[in-house]
Amino acid sequence: MATIRPRGDSWEARIRHKGWSVTCRTFDTKFDAEKWAREIESEMDRGVFVSRSEAESTTLARALDRYETDYLPRLAHPDREFLRIKGLKRRVLAARFLAAIRTKDIADFIKEREAEEVSPHTIRLDLALLSRLFEVAASDWGMESLGNPVRRVSRPKLPTGRSRWFEVYSSICRPC
After folding, report:
1. Is there a contact between 150 and 127 (Cβ–Cβ < 8 Å)?
2. Whole-structure pTM over 0.90, yes or no?
3. Long-range contacts: 33-40, Cβ < 8 Å, 24+?
4. pLDDT, tens digit, for every residue of 75-88?
């Protein structure tokens, strides 16, 4: 059964359910607290509840730090990834909690990078790093409830490459 109580200017919902650890969260309105409590209790009753507390309390910057220490040493050439992580930590997105990052936030990140006139390939590499981070967090770090918002966003199109062979061939085979 959930207990909803005022806590300063906000409301705290605390759920104690047999067989599950105590789960609590703070909300701005009583309605939001009651709604959340009903959803979580329903998941607990069905046996599908997965705790979101770690994903809701870990920022992207802290996850990038953990990714850097746990995952980068496994790579053959971690230098570029290290620089990419360093750049991502300076973004506004890095202050957000992992559970709060949505596809719209990733789309805004892409638009921000395009406005900086960064090449589409660089943006795709940034997205690949973020996607890998979300996958590692969900599989290795125990954040099973965490979805990968990068997977659902449309990536920037890569420009067509150069056709050097055609240039060389056309200069040799000119009509007389």
Report:
1. yes
2. no
3. 33/4, 34/2, 34/4, 37/2, 37/4, 37/13, 38/2, 40/2, 40/15
4. 888 888 899 999 99
